[in-house]
Amino acid sequence: MARQWKWGENPDKLNKVELQKLEQDGLDIIDEIVNVYAVNGFESIPEEKFSLFKWAGVYQQKPKKDGYFMMRIRIPGGVLTSEQARVLAQLGQEYGRGLIDVTTRQAVQYHWLRIEHFPDIFRRLGEVGLHSYEACGDCPRTIVGNPLAGIDANELIDTRPIVKALEKEFLLNRDFSNLPRKYKMSISSSIYNPANAQINDLSFTPAVKEIDGEEVVGFHVWVGGGLSNRPHLAKQLDIFVRPEQVVDVAVGITTVFRDYGYREKRHRARLKFLVADWGPEKFLEVLTGIIGPYPKRGEDKIADWNAGYFTGVHPQKQEGYSYVGLNIPIGRTSAEEFFQLADLADQYGSGSLRTVNTQNIIISDVPNEKVEKLLQEPLLKRLSPRPKAFEGHAVSCTGVEFCNLALTETKGLMKRVVEYLDEHVELDTPIRLHINGCPNSCGQQQIADIGLMGGKMKTANGMQEAYTISVGGHLYGEGEFNTQLKGRVLANDVAPVLKELVVFFKENKQEGENFTRF
Ligand code: SF4
Description:
InterPro entries: NIR_SIR_4Fe-4S, NiRdtase/SiRdtase_haem-b_fer, Nit/Sulf_reduc_fer-like_dom_sf, NO2/SO3_Rdtase_4Fe4S_dom, NO2/SO3_Rdtase_4Fe4S_sf, NO2/SO3_Rdtase_FeS/sirohaem_BS. Keywords: 4Fe-4S, Heme, Iron, Iron-sulfur, Metal-binding, Oxidoreductase. With about 525 residues, the chain is of the alpha+beta class. Helices cover about 30% and strands about 20% of the residues. Helix 3 packs antiparallel against helix 8, helix 6 packs across helix 7 and helix 11 packs parallel to helix 12. The protein is globular and about 60 Å long.
């Protein structure tokens, strides 16, 4: 019997996932995979166990009967060493048909894995400090951070040690392995909010406050953000948190979610619903009962929003060094390219790479005198530091190719759309395009300048894949989700319809206006 927590909603009406989690903690599945199912094969896995595989970071790939799996690897804050990148490349090459996707939470995903592969993958990831555990499931997922942490001239403090401390506290911690639903944290001290604070369950953003006559650098705290098909923007709590208090506050907030979060209906179980019902004041009152009183909010230090685009060559806060942001087209790369990235990071930088929530990658710590030579490397022809405008601002979820929940294809369509737009429209300001293959919003379409969401449409030729179009999403200030336009567009019509939309923008915008502020 798994450990039981107090339930916030009607305890007699727990949904069936909750009942299963009462029987067995999701983390138990890791040992079962290694010791039972990997030994006895795919056919030996009882159907009801598959839903627990998420705690190992694993989903069944489409079609389920074929016995292939997708695995997500957490990369806390997106900080990756060349040694880790090589292991990711080796495993992708040996087991994942050479395919590696970078996700919108700075993680990477493999496809085509078989149950027999898992023990070796878990072991080899663990040897370099990487894990797939709890990258999925009703638990604390990959912790998102500022991909420039430690090298960023625009951050107040280096958040890498805090990301590490959070990862240490939450990963494989059975106090928090049975939350009502998935739980996403982010932390950044950049004034440009690159970790998208408003769309996480819990976020820490930069702030300062005068305490006892001294200016203290710390964080403000946001709770209850999240996308999916009922998106909510997070709300700020009226507290100021010092860097050394972040873990305590995160533990307190996660405890509130665990003990008071809704467990009756799956679609109302995310923290955002509790925060929406309680409001930030009541939430803080309950939190204070757990962690004690904290100082009130100080001065907010978010100045603007960088949606996570760092392509090109940029100076680091360390004088004489630059980071080079590379575009991974539609977030899909390969084991071969990951090997090369690791080599380039060693050859030109300090062996450090950063994954970005826009599904791109950064090579950091490049001495300025080596930058020109790095830019000549053949790999940078495809993973370009200067991508075309639309290709360089396109985000896509996995879609029907591998995802069991998908209603439509995504990456292939997005590739065709951006190629078409780059060929037909020239713009002086980028437009961010995001696509989801279903309302779950792994592609974060609600915060896009132009968001596409896949669904089905009845036509004279039967049901066909079609997409809604939404415009004007952003996370400037408190943030705003985009607005859905009327109707749906068939896959083949998406590119020409978006061209019309973009040309209208181009012809009517004032100088200096971007799509969001149009
Ligand atoms: Fe799958 Fe939907 Fe997520 Fe896309 S948004 S990866 S289709 S669940």
